[in-house]
Design goal:
- Helix 2 packs antiparallel against helix 5 and helix 3 packs antiparallel against helix 4.
- By secondary structure, the chain is mainly α.
- The chain has one domain: Four Helix Bundle (Hemerythrin (Met), subunit A) (Up-down Bundle), CATH 1.20.120.50.
- The chain is elongated.
- The protein contains 5 helices and no strands.
Length: 155
């Protein structure tokens, strides 16, 4: 057997299928979430296909850079909207980046299938849980606020 097939057989495959529950109804954030899910899927596929460390590191760097961009973009939108849970949400983002960085450091040290699986599993779990729970809180708050602003007032 060649190395490519051995590697693909040992790493389990995690793939995020886009679900309507991931939609927040905020076009810019939804588009970023779709792109982020695609990056996670690409990383999962590529870690299965190759053990070229420089390429893996480059993909991981791209993913972390995009996560940071997305978080800043999301936090700026929350700030402009006056979201009262911004500080808590920002802290959540910092913790996610810290936890991801620890897993990536472990992968960089060991380059094992288990370390790669840990990164991918963390990313998939993070994406789904953070989007469906934490980001959804902002979406609901934003929609409730818009509805209350749009309500006609009796005179």
């Amino acid at each position: 057997m060649d190395q490519h097939n051995d590697r693909a057989d040992t790493l389990h495959h995690t793939h995020i299928e886009w679900q309507p529950t991931y939609e927040l109804g905020i076009e810019a954030i939804d588009a970023q979430h779709r792109y982020f899910a695609n990056l996670i899927n690409l990383l999962s596929d590529e870690l299965r296909k190759t053990d070229h460390r420089d390429y893996q590191d480059s993909l991981l760097n791209e993913l972390v850079a995009y996560a940071r961009f997305h978080f800043i973009s999301e936090e700026n939108l929350m700030f402009r909207s006056g979201y009262p849970q911004l500080d808590e949400h920002r802290q959540h983002h910092r913790e996610l980046i810290d936890r991801l960085s620890a897993r990536i450091a472990n992968l960089s040290l060991h380059h094992s299938e288990n370390a790669a699986d840990a990164v991918i599993d963390f990313l998939a779990e993070w994406f789904i849980n953070h989007t469906v729970i934490e980001d959804k809180k902002f979406s609901v708050w934003s929609k409730d606020r818009a509805a209350s602003v749009d309500m006609p007032h009796a005179t």
